[in-house]
Amino acid sequence: MRVTPGGYGQMFQNLPGWMAEAECRDSEPDLFFGADPGWGRITETIAQRRAREAQAKAMCARCPVRNSCLEYAMTTPEHDGLWGGLTDAERKAMRRATMRLKAPASVS
Asked: Which residue, among 84, 86, 88, has the nearest Cα to 22 in the 3D structure?
């Protein structure tokens, strides 16, 4: 979904809870989801993606609802974009680590 102009703000107007307080509510979604037009045709270089993600993470770092956002992305689970300061790959790693901790000990 593309939300322009005005970023997420208009979309969040009718949503209750933490999303209305998100630092990103008036930002362009491309900052958090990239500019991939779909169908796997990536239009940004690795360097551009890293720079975009660093900018998004800086916004997340000062966000008052970062923990709620991350919790949402982890429990949904949200597979696209940067949520709560973590990329999809970082959230996947976090899920795997959590699953290992919850796994019952094997009997030898």
From this structure: 84
